[in-house]
Amino acid sequence: MKSLRWRLIGGIVLVISTLWAATAAWFFVDVRAELSAVLDARMIASAQMVQGLLDRQELRLPNASRLPLNPPPRPAGRPTGLVCQLWTLDGRLVSTADGGPPLPATAIPDGISNQRVNGRDWRVFALTDPEHGLRILTAEPRQLRRNLMLDMALKLSAPLALALPAMLLLVWLAVRRALVPLERLRRSLQARGPDALEPLAVEGLPAELSPMVNALNGLLRRLSEAFARERRFTGDAAHELRTPLAGIKTQLQIAQGAGGDVRARALAQAEAGLDRMSRLVTQMLMLARVEARQAISDGQERAPVQATLTAVLEELRPLAEQQGVNLQLRGETSDAVAPLPPLMLHTALRNLLENALRHGGEGGRVDVRVNAGATQTVLQVLDTGPGIADEELNRVQARFYRTAAGKATGTGLGLSIVAAIARRYDLGFRLRNRDDGPGLCASLTLTRQRGVTGSDHPRPVPLECGENSGPGPRP
Fold this sequence. Notes:
Layout: H1 4-55, E1 83-88, E2 93-96, E3 111-117, E4 120-129, E5 134-141, H2 142-178, H3 180-190, H4 210-257, H5 260-291, E6 303-304, H6 305-323, E7 326-330, E8 336-338, H7 342-359, E9 365-372, E10 376-383, H8 414-424, E11 428-433, E12 440-447, E13 449-450
Parallel strand pairs: 7-9
Antiparallel strand pairs: 1-2, 1-5, 3-4, 4-5, 6-8, 8-13, 9-10, 10-12, 11-12
Helix pairs in contact: 1-2, 4-5, 5-8, 6-7, 7-8
């Protein structure tokens, strides 16, 4: 398991050490160049000083003619500093400092150069003085320079090596203190029970932790809502299925102890009870899926309004004919599509029409009106039933709510499902009593998206719920 604390400590120490090493390396290279220039300048100044002494005749030199030409090498000590030698132009050694080997004066060019003499490297400066017939050589062992550079490098790296443990400790303490809010959050989550879904406190948290805590609170809120929906679904199922199951059991008991028409009638009523219970379970599952925001289909899918509406009308036309209700469509939606999956639009329209057919009264009329505008399409379902009392218009969208004057044949979930679909897909859903007489008007407003290329001139979409509102009936 990777530790965030040690990753932070390692990263900080690595960055500081790298910057320190880079700075030390840059400083070392710069100082080495400066030091080499200073030491070279010292050799040049020493040679020029000897030349000045010769000009002022302050040096006593032996007779050059008595000196041997190209003297043989002699044992040299280990010089600890600058070596100075005087040579005649024909290669006779006039004077040398102790510890310095005879340098090849005739082979060394004027100026600064690196020479190897007797297996050792030297830094040499040569100056020719034709007035006195001499060559002045100042030299310094290169090993001395290397030792000086090594000593400087050790002095630059020693503070880092000595400070590294202290820096590691200080960084560890700083990181530990900075991670205290995270550790406090971990303990708070660890101490929670499985049913503790209340949000976490965000007061006093660092800015870096606030987004994570807000995301956790959002997750806890969604979990709480999901558990509440499950409890509500379980309670609703237990409550709503108890009565149909008891009725079916009673009818089966009657059929078991009877015969003839009584038995047939009891079995028919038991079958009808099973159909109602199946319808109730289907609607409860659909409502649970919509409220839980489960994926119904591809999020990019859009529902063709005209095709979906036509399919729903064809499905419910036999029911309308059975109840003697005149089911009529007014208007067309042409190529408009709705911003929701076809299954969801189909479910919403079917529930609205079933509600109108169930409560519109036998021999009545149900009109489906389509008002298509440039930016939205309004679908209205109008029936000729008794309508809903004004104080109940907002309550009928609650699950399992049935009006006092309504019929008890429905499940009480149809309008709840439509309202849930409207909330999920940001549709407009409104219930109101008709303006021109008894009956209910249900309006579903869809944001219009054209399925083919085209342009519409904006025009207002009528929202009145009267006999003369909207387009005329389709031929």
